[in-house]
Amino acid sequence: MFRGMKFELESKIKNKFVQKVEELSGENLSACYQCGKCSAGCPSAPFMDILPNQVIRLIQLGMKKELMNSKTIWICASCFTCSVRCPKGVDLAKIMEALRQIQLRQNIDYGKPLNLSKEKIGELPQIALVSNFRKFTA
Amino acid sequence: MKLAYYPGCTLKTQAKNFEDSAIASFEKLGIELEELKRWNCCGTVYSLTSDDLMHHLAPIRNLIRVKEEGKSKVVTFCSMCYNTLKRSAIRIKNNDEDREKINNFMDREEVKYEGDIEVLHGLEVLKNEVGFDKITKIVGEVHEPPILNGLKIAPYYGCLLLRPDEIGIDDPENPSILEDFIYAIGAEPIDFPYKNECCGAYQTVNEVNIVVDKAYNIINNAQRMGANIIITSCPLCEFNLDKRQKDIKKKYPNFKEIPVVYFTQALAVALGLDPKTYRFDLNYISPQAVLVK
Description:
The complex is a heterodimer of chains A (about 140) and B (about 290).
Chain A: H1 2-13, H2 16-25, H3 37-41, H4 52-60, H5 64-68, H6 72-75, H7 81-85, H8 92-104, H9 118-123, H10 126-136
Chain B: E1 2-5, H1 16-28, E2 32-35, H2 57-68, E3 73-76, H3 79-94, H4 96-105, E4 118-121, H5 122-130, H6 132-142, E5 152-155, H7 177-184, E6 188-189, H8 208-224, E7 229-232, H9 235-243, H10 245-251, E8 260-262, H11 263-270, H12 288-291
Parallel strand pairs in B: 1-2, 1-3, 3-4, 5-6, 5-7, 7-8
Helix pairs in contact in B: 1-11, 2-3, 3-4, 5-6, 6-7, 8-10
């Protein structure tokens, strides 16, 4: 029974999704030992449905659907707090970006720039708009 | 002393108060900021994926412009521009393959980029080129005691000035450069735990609620620690902390407003410069009553 489970896990671990995340982020996913420091310090964690440390665990297990449907990857604002605090040197901000890119590169936008009202566009500073479009559109 | 200056998009529009106060106060301190004759948007965020070289073109082209003007350093004030330019500069400097690829792509550029431009933030220039001691001296000469004497300022660093370590202008967890700056202009810094916590950044476009909650926590904490005013160096932080106070007030009716200014605006006041250079008209909560007595 355990042998079967191990086989299933290994095949998931080595699936294309995991490889893609590692390739895009350049990070070693197996370095994470789940201490939770990223989630403890994340200022966006209260607004997330999956905590930052859980994101890594789910990738390790190859659970693509759960991750790609999560709000978390779009709530992360790339503030790099987790990146400077990780005791194992895992740059989680890059992993979050890799997950967003996996969707965006299929030409599926998350943000809807065309729905923004003229009023809102006039009010927001350019850096808010440009960075938002860079992060949320293909 | 002359320094090449990269303004970035927002300092030319919504954050004109940042640019005007920066240019005027640097001039008073003996540094002439020479705006690049040609520049483009840096892209505002550093591209984090390993294979995405295309988004490093914009920042690197700006560094080529610096080289074309015969300079080896460029100073910028916006934290986002600083982060993007500096991280791209480091990646292209340390990675031969990337550098070759990016230069091959930009084959119409007359100058090749060799990774040889240093990106500086305005605060670093104040600390290392001018010196905080000199600022204290000049501020003391303008007015005795200094104009901002007794004012309690909350230094808000935000994210991109400090993180990641490789580009941070100070310790990412326990920075002190803004505090030292505040002492130098004759005011008193307050210590508050939210000084380097994210304001929500570009979530302000589609997730106003998140930004409202984050900005509320940051401002409320600064107020509880006794701040009269908050200073920052990022036009997006400024927008979220200053202009979003209108939305904070709607959600938290007991919220008390507080002015948020760029560090250069406080510097211009401390240096006794022409009030036209402060451009307080662009701040949502007027800093007039708190900063200028």
